[in-house]
Task: structure prediction
Amino acid sequence: MVEIFVFQLTSLFTMINPVAAIPIYIALTEAMTPKAARWVAMRASVTAFIALSVFALLGEAIFSFFSISVNGLRVAGGILFFVMGFEMLRGRTVPKRVDGETDGDFGSDVAVTPIGIPMIAGPGAITMVILMIQEGKATATPTMATMSLFVAIFVVCLLTAVVLASGRQMLAKLGRSGSKILMRLMGLIVMLIAVEFFFAGIKPYIIDIARAIPAA
Result:
């Protein structure tokens, strides 16, 4: 069971890659107090934990019921990330605040999406937990394997909160001018991530269309 847990933990942490969420997290919490920013990191990780747990239990049934594919989730996430990266490249914090919106309200919104979903609990992580829960059912101790997976999800999400909070501290050391430069650079990185997401998701659709043309 220890080997299974270590495998689940390392695989999930590598797939989620919390470092990749730092650019968006820093951009969205730039104007917040350190306490509010830490709260966003914690709430985003809790959101990701709930989402991954739900998909681990019901993911296969949900996708089947609505005829949703993980590739569709990749395409949608890619489009969302590209728009956000473009706004960051222009020096704007996205999503935009509504007039009169407090740090708490704004933080709640961005913690759920895009940081919690789909940046942390993205298509890859969702697919992985669905596959892991299926593999666990095929082991000699399915109950233990399932419990191990949920513990691994919890630990990874907790580590993600720590990584994001550390990234916010990095912003304070850069100063205002440095943070603006960093946000534009990170915007470019987010756009590149978006392109990878988009084409990874749309590639299977193109292949299916290409295969269907000769048959038609």
